[in-house]
Design brief:
Number of domains: 1
Number of helices: 10
Strand content: 15-25%
Oligomer: single chain
CATH class: Alpha Beta
């Protein structure tokens, strides 16, 4: 079992944490002063846009740990600026979050990760493939790259068509892992894969707080209910109203 890490006051591992994804500015207003049914709130800054800045002025104290993502278009996001501008966006928002998610293979990874470490923030090194589940060698190479780059968590989100795809992801948890791993499917077997991978050891389960941002993603509250029902480790580690 990999060592646990902290995102804010939340321990990641051995039980999974539910990430509630925010993609719209009006959701930020609705969440003000409330604790949503998730364990971590992800700000998709590439989707929310400049309205995120206004929210910072009125609600600076998080009720859940915050994960910042400015996803590039190459891996399914909507960031349309340059990499230099994206790095600057991460750095500007870094004081308001407890962790950042940046793509393992992007030019932004090293400078964003360095800024996050200097600010004592955690780093999620992510990879997204909307076409297929890569072969086992490629998946393990991505994990190694994330670890070698100093990530606190590695995240793999890939397209799952058939049972073999899901099994390939499950098999990753049979290896010794030096950091927590979040693995999830998208597409036809997306929702089913996330339930199985949470049971296998995936440290993060993603759901939405306003609208789905990936094929196979369910509402965050639904994931909370599923994990409370099916996963004893989650029941033992989490308490939700």
């Amino acid at each position: 079992m990999p060592p646990a890490c902290q995102i804010g006051a939340l321990t990641i591992g051995p039980a999974p944490a539910v990430v509630g994804v925010v993609s719209r500015a009006d959701t930020l207003a609705a969440l003000r002063g409330e604790a949503p049914r998730c364990d971590i709130v992800e700000w998709r800054a590439d989707l929310i846009g400049p309205m995120l800045d206004a929210a910072l002025e009125s609600d600076p104290a998080p009720l859940r740990p915050r994960l910042l993502t400015v996803r590039c278009a190459r891996e399914g996001g909507r960031w349309s600026g340059s990499e230099e501008e994206r790095i600057a966006r991460y750095e500007m928002l870094l004081p308001f979050v407890q962790a950042v998610d940046v793509e393992i293979e992007s030019d932004a990874f090293s400078p964003v990760a360095a800024a996050a470490r200097a600010a004592d923030r955690r780093v999620v090194a992510s990879f997204h493939d909307y076409a297929a589940t890569p072969d086992a060698g490629r998946l393990r190479a991505l994990i190694k790259r994330g670890v070698d780059l100093g990530a606190d968590i590695v995240k793999l989100a890939v397209w799952t068509y058939v049972e073999e795809d899901v099994r390939r992801l499950e098999d990753l948890f049979l290896d010794p892992l030096p950091v927590p791993l979040a693995a999830m499917g998208m597409g036809p077997l997306g929702a089913a894969s996330r339930t199985r991978l949470a049971a296998a050891g995936s440290c993060l389960v993603y759901g939405y707080l306003d609208e789905s941002t990936a094929p196979g993603q369910l509402a965050a509250g639904e994931w909370v209910d599923r994990l409370l029902e099916t996963l004893p480790a989650y029941r033992a580690a989490h308490s939700h109203a």
